[in-house]
Amino acid sequence: MTAARFIRSSIVYIILIVAAVMVLYPLAYTFLSSFMTPEESSAYPPKMLPSGLYLGTFQEVLELVPLGAFIGNSFVISLAIMGGQVLTASMAAYAFVYVTFRGRALLFAVVLSTMMIPWEITMIPNYLTIKSWEWLDRYPGLIVPFLASAFGIFLLRQFFLQLPRELFEAAKMDGCGHVRHFVRIVLPLSRPALASLAVYTFLNAWNMYLWPLLVTSSDTMRTVQIGISMLQFEEMTSWNLVLAGVTLVLLPSLLLLMLGLKQLVGGLTAGAIKG
Amino acid sequence: MSTTHREVYSGIRATESVVHKQAKRLSVWREHAAGYLFLAPSLVLFAVFLFYPLIQSIYLSFHLTDPRGHVAAYVGFDNFTQLFASSAFWNSLGVTVKFTLLTVPAGIIAGLLLAAFTHTKLKGMSFFRFIFSLPVALSVSTSAIIWMMLYHPTTGTLNYFLSKLGADPVQWLIDPAWSLISISIMTVWMNSGFNYILLLSGLQGIGDDIRDSARIDGSGPVRTFFQILLPLLSPTVFFLTVVSVLNAFQSFGQIHILTKGGPAGSTEVFVYSIYKEAFVNYQFGTGSALALVLFLIILLLTWIQFRFVEKKVHYQ
């Protein structure tokens, strides 16, 4: 290795390490603080590392707020939105790709145009709708408004278009109807795209903030994002309680990221590369 | 004999063609029905939760409402004229624009640098790629709470590090001159994972052969990046810019948790104003007017980006 190349790669490593420390520090601080005893976390100058794996803070935060219930609520809501969006989007995408019907192009343009509508403009009327249906503080109010997605339809349509057309013609010759073709052929072949959409939708639903803030009011219906942000409003003596709560909330997302990073990357980039 | 034969024959053909036509019409009809049935769930949901609210927002913006959301009086354009006359409206518009300028360019440049540096054949890059992707798992509330701890004026570690460096402590969230900058730092950190993943996969999509041939032609890594890779990456950068601007204009969670729009309105972004008007003051009419203005601004911004900026984008 020449000296110039050695210097160049050293500079790259130094920049990367500095950047990695900047990205990681807030997360490391959160994780490490949640293992500290109350005395350690309130010490000055602040301690960087806990002296041991103290688990009392986790126990305390679980007793203080129903974090388990929050996580359970978020799971139910995110799974329902994920399943619903994958179903409605794959059905709609199937219609746009494989069925010839009057108004197809127009309806597709309408669906695409909904991507331009910012969610905030529908927020007030949707809140009033949910309220008049007495869905406030209940699961349907948190789930039903998000069961359809133009982004999902678009993503799956682009994928369905790439599937070999001959399969469809052959199935049609064999007298295979649309429902069977959809369930037996198109869905199994689209597993990668469905998985991308599922991971993307789950994370988005899990991270939702403004809508659950508006439509939930009781502790038993709070999602994890709202529940965790309420920790900071409680009168707290030790801060590591809040950080232990954040750690518990982050764990499922981080696990999902480790398992589904590839799927997510595929899903996020599908829209970008095609322009 | 032959005539009857012919008559019978043509009769059969006639009924056959009628049956055939009917069957064809039936199958065409069934095809149409299948299309609408497959679309029905999405269309019904869009109609109830997207198109109806859009129209309802326009309707509400011309009315005053009581706290329960019922229309109380028609006021014409009063809600809008009041908005444009109020300094709070212009303040929140200014704050949103400043916030966009603070977060979008910084986020994209940081993502580009990290993607370029980790898109090399040096050892250990998969480790760095994982680290830089991590923030994509963060939600706005967890990120905001972590930074609330870091920004704390007395016990926060950021001021401790500053004091170690011999600098004066900063009143991150309390000083109006710093509050929006502090929120922007936190937002850039939170979004860095998404930006990084997108730009890295864009770079990986370009392919090694172009880089290799550039190197053989004697182009250094910096020149290769700016003159060859960056133009090829411009569709991804353009997409990311559009999405980031939209996101910045729709930010809410971090402001709600960290500053509640304060101090002195210095972080009151547009969506926070809508939230305050509709769900704190229960003015659904003026809240809808604000939301409508946001919608028009976003439409205009997106149109400008596609009309003028996309011309500079290089599609392969």
TrEMBL record, chain A:
Subcellular localization(s) per the UniProt record: Cell membrane
InterPro entries with a match to the protein in the record: MetI-like (IPR000515), MetI-like_sf (IPR035906)
Key word Transmembrane helix present: yes
Keyword Transmembrane part of the UniProt annotation: yes
Superkingdom as given in the UniProt entry: Bacteria
Gene Ontology biological process terms from the UniProt entry: transmembrane transport
One cellular component (GO) term of this entry: plasma membrane
Membrane topology term: Multi-pass membrane protein
Parts of the chain that traverse the membrane: 12-32, 75-99, 106-130, 142-161, 182-203, 239-259
UniProtKB keywords: Cell membrane, Membrane, Transmembrane, Transmembrane helix, Transport
Entry-linked CDD domains: TM_PBP2
Domain ABC transmembrane type-1: 71-260
Family: Belongs to the binding-protein-dependent transport system permease family.
Name listed for the protein in its UniProt record: Carbohydrate ABC transporter permease
Provenance organism: Paenibacillus nanensis
UniProtKB/TrEMBL annotation, chain B:
Family named by the database record: Belongs to the binding-protein-dependent transport system permease family.
GO BP terms: transmembrane transport
Full protein name: Sugar ABC transporter permease
Pfam family membership, one: BPD_transp_1
Top-rank taxon: Bacteria
Spans traversing the lipid bilayer: 34-55, 99-118, 130-150, 177-203, 224-249, 282-304
Mode of membrane association: Multi-pass membrane protein
UniProt-listed SUPFAM superfamilies: MetI-like
Source organism phylogeny: Bacteria, Bacillati, Bacillota, Bacilli, Bacillales
Primary subcellular site in the record, as a coarse category: membrane
Keywords: Cell membrane, Membrane, Transmembrane, Transmembrane helix, Transport
Gene Ontology cellular component terms for the protein in this record: plasma membrane
